[in-house]
């Protein structure tokens, strides 16, 4: 059963577990989070997605009218998103990365070269929340994307010299292990911690938060130790 973070007549927000896809992908068929959510809560509309490895706040619309309104809010960049990331590499205390993105190979994304006509503007604000004396995990970082491009935070962290501590596409490929060699983490340590927007019915401010899942809490405990 999915962990419900918010539910009313217009919206449903759940805690997305890592390792799940939201909608059907290009590979072999597999159960999706949308399937599970609809089995538990009825007809839903997808308004945004999270990568397979990412955990955290995932928002669905429960009516067509709410779907239109929230989609418009996303398009207008009126939805504020806050992520937490465990990274490997040096970062200043605060940084704004502004680097346009273009499609890469095999579903990846890369920073655009000068004059690339396919470039789409992308900007992310980064802030170091905590630093660690570990080579494998150097910091806990807050990331606030100003735009909503595919893989934006992952690419911008790598561009800044501090990729996610595990990221087969843009950073270290190997799982994170402790001193004894036991695997601590195999997925990308990126968590959608909070989502803020105006409610599509009435316009009241709505803030939804998702607690860190057990796997990231375990890595944090190890990094602090």
Number of strands: 14
Predict the CATH topology.
Pseudouridine synthase
CATH class: Alpha Beta
Mean pLDDT: 95
**In CATH, what is the homologous superfamily?**
Pseudouridine synthase
Query: Counting H and I runs of at least 4 residues, what is the number of helices?
Result: 4
- Write the element-wise H/E pattern from the N-terminal end onward: EEHEEHEEEEEEHEEEEH
Helix coverage percent of residues?
Answer: 10-25%
C-alpha Rg (nearest Å) = 18 Å
- Poorly predicted residue ranges: none
Give the domain tally.
1
The largest β sheet comes out as: 10 strands, mixed
What is the topology?
Blueprint: E1 4-7, E2 11-16, H1 33-41, E3 45-46, E4 55-61, H2 64-75, E5 80-87, E6 94-98, E7 101-103, E8 109-111, E9 123-131, E10 139-145, H3 152-159, E11 176-177, E12 183-185, E13 190-198, E14 205-209, H4 214-224
Parallel strand pairs: 4-13
Antiparallel strand pairs: 1-2, 2-4, 3-4, 5-10, 5-13, 6-9, 7-8, 9-10, 11-12, 13-14
What attributes does this structure have?
4 helices; alpha+beta; 225 residues; Pseudouridine synthase; single chain; two-stranded antiparallel ribbon; 32% strand; ten-stranded mixed beta sheet
Give a description of the structure.
- The chain is an alpha+beta fold.
- The chain has a single domain (4-224), classed as 2-Layer Sandwich (Pseudouridine synthase), CATH 3.30.2350.10.
- 18% of the residues lie in helices and 32% in strands.
- It is built from 4 helices and 14 strands.
- It has helices spanning 33-41, 64-75, 152-159, 214-224; strands spanning 4-7, 11-16, 45-46, 55-61, 80-87, 94-98, 101-103, 109-111, 123-131, 139-145, 176-177, 183-185, 190-198, 205-209.
- Strands 1, 2, 3, 4, 5, 6, 9, 10, 13 and 14 form a 10-stranded mixed β-sheet that branches.
- The two termini are 33 Å apart.
